[in-house]
Amino acid sequence: MNKRTLILGVAAFLLVAVTIYDYTAGPDQPRHSPATGSRLSPKQETSPSRIGGLIREASELKYLLGHAPEIRGRYQAIAVPYAEAVASFVTLYNPGESPQAVARSRLAALVPAGVNLSGLLVSEGASTDRGAVSLTATLSFASNDSAAFETAILALGDPANGMVWKELNIGSDSENRTLQASGKLLMLMVEQSE
């Protein structure tokens, strides 16, 4: 064993010892848990379960590092089918984005050329702790192109897009030769995790 390896080993051992000392019998200073931001009582700081938790975390990390090629291979095997499954789900949004703003832009993108979208209002909905938000969009649109009008109705109410019609009223204006629709869409906005 060379001198450099021995010095690094001693330094690592000292760092581990100081860390364990700090978590068990260190100075009496108020601490904040990084995960929750709450203060820990002195009894919680010195508990053996805290050291056991650190040891478990270290062993889990060691396991993950040791099996990294296998984990990477499995992830790559499911990544493409997963991406294909959610590709049509237009109500996905990135972390940090406003679900309402994303909903407005996605609705406008689904309406084909030749269809005039108006009166778009997206209400706030109930959110879950898993990143899903249920929204209701009230909108109306008109077109003198029956094929584009039909495409808009089907695309906006397609469950594969993450939305369904809650209410839909269709009419026509024979003088202006336009088709008109108004209604409410239920939208399931899902935060992307990949």
Measure the end-to-end span: 44 Å
Biggest β-sheet strands, sense, barrel: 5 strands, mixed
The first-level CATH class of the largest domain is given as Alpha Beta
Weakly predicted, low-confidence segments: 32-38
> How many structural domains does the protein architecture include?
2
Average pLDDT level: 79
Instruction: Fill in the CATH topology of the largest domain.
Output: Alpha-Beta Plaits
- The assigned CATH architecture of the largest domain is 2-Layer Sandwich
Counted beta strands: 5
Would you tell me the structural class of the helices and strands? Answer: alpha+beta
Describe the protein in words.
The protein is an alpha+beta fold. It has 2 domains: 3-66, no CATH class; 92-191, Alpha-Beta Plaits, CATH 3.30.70. Helices cover 45% and strands 25% of the residues. The protein has 6 helices and 5 strands, in the order H-H-H-H-E-H-E-E-H-E-E. The chain has helices at residues 3-25, 42-45, 48-66, 68-86, 99-110, 146-156, and strands spanning 92-93, 115-123, 132-143, 163-173, 178-191. Strands 1, 2, 3, 4 and 5 form a 5-stranded mixed sheet that branches. A hairpin with an 8-residue loop joins strand 2 and strand 3.
Descriptive labels:
6 helices; 2 domains; five-stranded mixed beta sheet; Alpha-Beta Plaits; single chain; 194 residues; 25% strand; alpha+beta
Task: Kindly summarize this structure in a few lines.
With 194 residues, the protein is an alpha+beta fold. The chain is 45% helix and 25% strand. The protein has helices spanning 3-25, 42-45, 48-66, 68-86, 99-110, 146-156, and strands at 92-93, 115-123, 132-143, 163-173, 178-191.
